[in-house]
Amino acid sequence: MTFLNPWLLVTLLLVPIVAALAIWFDRRRARYAVAFTNLDVLASVASPHRKPWRWIPLLLFLLALAAASTALARPRAAVSAAASRATVVMLVDVSGSMRAADVKPTRLGAAQEAMSAFADKVPKQVKIGLVSFSTSPNVLVIPTLDRGAIHEGIDLLSPEAGTAIGDGLGVAVQVARSSVGNVHPGKDGKIPAAIVLLSDGAQTRGLLTPMQGAERALQAGIRVYTVALGTDHGTLSIGPFGSFGFGGAQRFPVRPDPATLAAIARRTGGKTFRAESASRVNAVYRQLGSSIARHHSSREVSSWFAGAAALLLLGALGAGRIFGERLP
Q: Domains in the chain: how many in total?
């Protein structure tokens, strides 16, 4: 939180001053009471069993004073809301290595569950698109507000062959850019669009390199958030004729390429994550779903503190009448 008039925070010193004066008057009133020799008069000005809650009106009054003093300094707070006309494109690797079971039930199965949770977490007014890539990219769902269509597209994903990360990024950029239309970039040079790229391996196919794809995202003003899925000990059973898991199959390592994905995220201003378990990839997508495609800004919240001060003051007056205690 920041303040437009921070020097006015000095008025907060009134809080301990008023508290000290109230305690001093309370003690002085108790000493003054013992000066009476008339027991009837003494009983009327001094209570032998004063309860702790007699301080509640004072406490509420001090809180009201603190809130009012803060309001004078004109505080500003960071707020966030879903960006208008925002679009998120989920870009997912469906290469053959996504059959690997080092992430249960399989890499692709874990990714599908996480993407479904992501679709439900993203604000409802944000469009979501789905693009898969293997040897070549494929637009499965154009950006839409219909979460049912997104879930259907996710269910249709199945492992195929190679890995063309660069080409996939190139297509995802086109899809995102066409969805937001002629929206001008903000002060940070970004448009209200983002790409969430999940891949479990290094590029093996395609015309564009991963960094060429990242460069296209950068030029379009689109952040790319990357998720490297899988463990370093993941393997895949491949048969002698290129089939998966049949007749004389041998096991081959299928390691993710977190370094390349991290470079893509850095180049475009996004963030990168490593997911080596189903719970981790789910947590990553849930985190992204609640934060991505949101607009962050600062606004003055003096009215919040002024309103709180008024309510606290009313509470102090009410408590004073209930407990029979006077405010300072």
A: 2
The torsion angle over the Cα atoms of residues 109, 114, 119 and 122, rounded to 10 degrees, is -170
Query: Helix 56-72 to helix 302-323 angle, to the nearest 10 degrees?
Result: 160
Bridge partners for 127 per DSSP: 87
Same domain, 96 and 243: yes
C-alpha to C-alpha distance for 251 and 238, rounded to whole angstroms: 6
| pLDDT digits 0-9 by tens, 223-239 | 999 999 999 998 887 75
Quick check: bond before 105 cis, omega within 30? yes
Backbone angles phi, psi at 219, to 5 degrees: -65, -30
pLDDT in tens, 278-300: 999 999 999 998 778 666 567 78
Full-model pTM? 0.70
Separation between Cα atoms, residue 126 and residue 106, nearest integer Å: 29
User: Which residue segment(s) compose the domain that 90 sits in?
Assistant: 84-292
pLDDT in the model for residue 246: 47
- CA–CA separation, 202 and 204 (whole Å): 6
- Asked whether residue 6 is assigned to any structural domain, the reply reads yes
**pLDDT over 90, % of the chain:** 50
Q: List the one residue out of 97, 101, 146 whose CA is nearest residue 119.
A: 146
